């Protein structure tokens, strides 16, 4: 029998995961978001209960997928007392999908274990369309036994799975993925901005980049958007700043110098300061093209 699913965090990723699971025959039983109208709309769409508090989620679900914004939000939903997912949680499995620090994933798992719940972290190296279509690339941290128990569900959400080790390991790998992606994005924005300032045809430059050592996945996904200034949000610049910060904190703790990543974080923080944080990460080109910022 398929488990009853709870969703905590009905934003771009969480909502599309809920829609895909619903389409795949899972009972998305309950939805919660700190912004109640967002949760109400999704709950109506997938035929779920809209929970008014977190204990209602764990009371109605066997597996709870969480997709929250940052470390503070994660600590809030897993706080020891009050409005918390730890209430009614005995026997529940939490699959925590947000890009957060490894320490916070570990804290949540430890606190869940105290009340008899199980935990996986499932870091997502994909975006909105993949969440909707069940083609996420998932890096999963947690015990092998809990991973196997939930593998069928995870396979429904993903095109590929990789078990990375204990809780916290997936967060470390995801931080590295986004660190490199963000550096590539910032570098591409600078290259295209300079090409434009030199009077070069950007279509030609993009084609040459694609056939040389300048090629990258980011070139495929973001280059045209940078050129035409289409920054509809799939992965926000604010999230890019957060994720680069997580990677840089890990580097600091490991005593490894990461000047490129630090410079990239500074650029994305500048976007936030300029009120551009909700643009897609491709919006970093607004800082590198002459006459835009």
TrEMBL record:
Domain 6-phosphogluconate dehydrogenase NADP-binding intervals: 4-159
Coiled-coil intervals: none
Keyword Transport on entry: no
Occurrences of domain 3-hydroxyisobutyrate dehydrogenase-like NAD-binding (ranges): 168-287
InterPro entries assigned: 6-PGluconate_DH-like_C_sf, 6PGD_dom2, 6PGDH_NADP-bd, HIBADH-like_NADP-bd, HIBADH-related, NAD(P)-bd_dom_sf
Active-site residues annotated for this sequence: 174
Top-level taxon of the source organism: Bacteria
Keywords assigned: NAD, Oxidoreductase
One MF annotation (Gene Ontology) recorded for this entry: NADP binding
Protein name stated in the entry: 2-hydroxy-3-oxopropionate reductase
Organism the protein comes from: Rubritalea profundi
Phylogenetic placement of the source organism: Bacteria, Pseudomonadati, Verrucomicrobiota, Verrucomicrobiia, Verrucomicrobiales
């Amino acid at each position: 029998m398929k488990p009853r699913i709870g969703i905590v965090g009905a934003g771009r990723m969480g909502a599309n995961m809920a829609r895909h699971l619903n389409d795949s025959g899972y009972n998305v039983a309950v939805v919660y978001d700190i912004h109640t109208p967002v949760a109400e709309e999704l709950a109506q769409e997938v035929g779920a209960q809209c929970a008014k508090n977190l204990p209602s989620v764990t009371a109605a679900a066997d597996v709870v997928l969480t997709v929250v914004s940052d470390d503070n939000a994660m600590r809030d939903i897993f706080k020891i007392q009050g409005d918390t997912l730890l209430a009614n949680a005995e026997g529940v499995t939490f699959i925590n999908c947000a890009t957060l620090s490894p320490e916070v994933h570990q804290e949540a798992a430890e606190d869940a274990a105290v009340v008899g719940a199980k935990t996986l972290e499932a870091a997502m190296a994909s975006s909105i369309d993949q969440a909707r279509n069940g083609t996420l690339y998932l890096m999963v941290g947690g015990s092998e036994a809990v991973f196997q128990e939930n593998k069928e569900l995870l396979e429904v959400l993903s095109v590929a799975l990789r078990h990375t080790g204990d809780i916290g390991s997936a967060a470390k790998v995801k931080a590295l993925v986004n660190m490199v992606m963000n550096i590539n994005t910032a570098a591409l924005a600078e290259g295209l901005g300079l090409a434009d300032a030199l009077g070069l045809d950007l279509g030609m430059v993009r084609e040459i980049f694609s056939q040389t050592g300048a090629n990258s996945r980011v070139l495929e996904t973001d280059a045209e958007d940078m050129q035409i200034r289409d920054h509809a949000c799939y992965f926000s610049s604010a999230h890019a700043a957060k994720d680069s910060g997580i990677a840089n904190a890990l580097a600091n703790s490991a005593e490894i110098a990461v000047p490129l990543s630090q410079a990239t974080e500074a650029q994305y923080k500048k976007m936030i300061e300029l009120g551009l944080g909700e643009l897609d990460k491709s919006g970093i080109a607004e800082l590198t093209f002459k006459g835009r910022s």
